[in-house]
Amino acid sequence: MGENESTVWDSPEETELGRFFQPPEDVPEGLTGVYLLSDSREAFRARYALAARAEHTIDLQYYLWKSDTTGRLLLNRVMEEADRGVRVRILIDDIYHTGRDELYADVAAHPNVEIRIFNPIGNRGFMRNFGFVMGAKRYNHRMHNKIFLIDGAAAILGGRNIGDDYFAIDPKLNFDDMDALVVGGAAKEAGKAFDLFWNSEAAVPIDSFIKYQASDEDHWKMRAGLLSTLQDSIDEVPYQIPVDHDEVMAGLKEVRSQLVWTKAEVVVDVPERYVEKGESAIFELLQEINPSIDDELYLQSAYLLPEPETIEAFAGLVDRGVEVHIMTNSLMSNNHLSVHGHYAKSRKPMLNAGVNLYELRVDGAMMDYYRNRESRLASSNSGLHTKAFVIDREISIIGSYNMDPRSRVWNSEIALVVYDPIIGAQLRAIMAEEMGPTNAYKVEFNEAGKLQWTAEYEGEEVIFKTEPNATRTKRSLSRLSGWVPVRRQL
């Protein structure tokens, strides 16, 4: 092992979490316990509770970690565990973290914490993203993986980054997303995936490429700032956070009681694929599965930009009698206008291929629970951030892979693949509800061959002839953005 290399905790079964999540005696060795985290509140509470039970290691790998309420709460939770002697490794992609260098250095000044930045951009000033916009290969290779791993024993994998809009407390926009909590075999594979990136040449310690060098005093000033806002942060979360031991254990016992023990694996790109120009591991997996699909494919992709060959593959499935159901964002729910502009040009080809196409409503019923219980969320819109597939109700894929050029060509991605009809039925039911008329528009051709969007309002079917609830200006900007030649970078 090299001087700067380290690895995940190698005896997870001997930790408190390992013993707590020990499989029943009749479960064969090597299987994985799986629990879906579709509810945004539960997704945050699970992360908070798992971190609170860490004994040896916390390993966190994220594309985006915001400095908002939930971002501060999780950072404070992790730092408190570091104070108890837990080793913390945090690996963050560099693209969306302008101006955060000193904060990261202050955090990493703790003797038990190390932060590495994946593929750091040399220019730390306002020109740092110029290469990204211009399509420079090195700048565009981003680490889109998401791993939350405690003691090598329990992991959360899926689509969520760390931020208020992923955990249902943002007053403007909250994402519908999907994670899975895994223990057993897939948790061990998640540890190997984390180490693969952590020990790669592209993962650079924060203090090795910035001028600022944090002192102990800088670290404790940062910690004092976190503590000063801690109670306010807790108060801002409109649901119960597991703070004391009994609350933590109650939540974890509920998860344990509903684990499905089954065959699962973690599929991950190699960190060096932008150098080696290799194909996406998740794309290769989908190609491998395609010929065996018999009945139906359910797919949710937040940012949907299918290549012509992908649309041909959808058509081939339909010709074989397979029902293909695909959901993505509508114009009003999409937080990336340029992505929507390019996606819009794929609607008609997908419909011609026989795809059942759905777009998320910003006013969908799935957000009503939060809107009706918390005044700060009363006007919050919904956005889709899920990246998931269900094949024949038997194979479930949950991860970070969007059906777009960025995921296939530029990003490194990760996916949990579960081979189980129970998990398949659970995930399909969630998707089917979200594709329903109270949560999504169904996009179809009308009798004249024009696009129409159909939804349900107060029990009545409503048909839109243009993109629903969007102003003429927004529709025009979306169309214009679709002609900007950046599709391969999206």
TrEMBL record:
This is Phospholipase D family protein. One of its GO terms (biological process) is cardiolipin biosynthetic process. Residues 139-166, 380-407 form the PLD phosphodiesterase domain. InterPro entries: PLD-like_dom (IPR025202), PLipase_D/transphosphatidylase (IPR001736). It comes from Puniceicoccus vermicola. GO terms for molecular function: phosphatidyltransferase activity. Residues 1-25 are annotated as: Disordered. Pfam families: PLDc_2.
